[in-house]
# Entry
Amino acid sequence: MRLITLALAALLLLIQYPLWLGKGGWLRVKDLEQQVDDAHAKNDELKRRNGKLDSEVRDLKDGTGAVEERARYELSMIKQNEIYVQILHKGQIPGDGATPAPPAADEPAKPARR
# Structure
């Protein structure tokens, strides 16, 4: 009787192995579900990014507002008969918004001519 009980317990453990650790086991299924959820999240993020890029492309193709805005901010272009005013903070070089001026030597700095 004891031998039959041990044999049945061993068979039960052998049957459980594929259920837990086999190719279609619960642990593998859980891992695949996590991968699917991660892929869905990434796809949603990429869809939002593509939507933004699509609207920007349509705006660049159809309207002139986006082109003008890019020309103003990225290329510092101005319209005809407009006046461009640049405000410099103390120690900045004209034409460069981030580089501080080198320390002055013995003579005072001369204003830039345009």
